[in-house]
Amino acid sequence: MIILRLKISASLKKKGFNVVNLKLAPADIIATTEKRRLVISIEPKDSNKAFKKFYDAKKLTLHMNGDLVIVARTNKVSNESKTEGFKTTSNLELADVLNDEEG
To answer: Partner of 18 at 20 to 30 A CA spacing, among 35, 36, 53, 67?
Structure first.
């Protein structure tokens, strides 16, 4: 997960975001520009804890007035989180989501 977090952070920095990596928090990455605030939460290795983490990240996002992006590692969590209403992507599709966030 650390490598994935670093790749996402580097990609966000290239797009002009200010990036903060968090540890032991529901959000793994917080990225901001003058116009956007993104909270990125990566599915943990123990997928049983994923939705608690995602709901806590959603609360944090509401306090920040930002957008939450969930990075799912498994299809099961991806499908379930989409049905729960989360904006979900895989690490392979993240570039597309970041391009959408710019506009």
So the answer is: 53
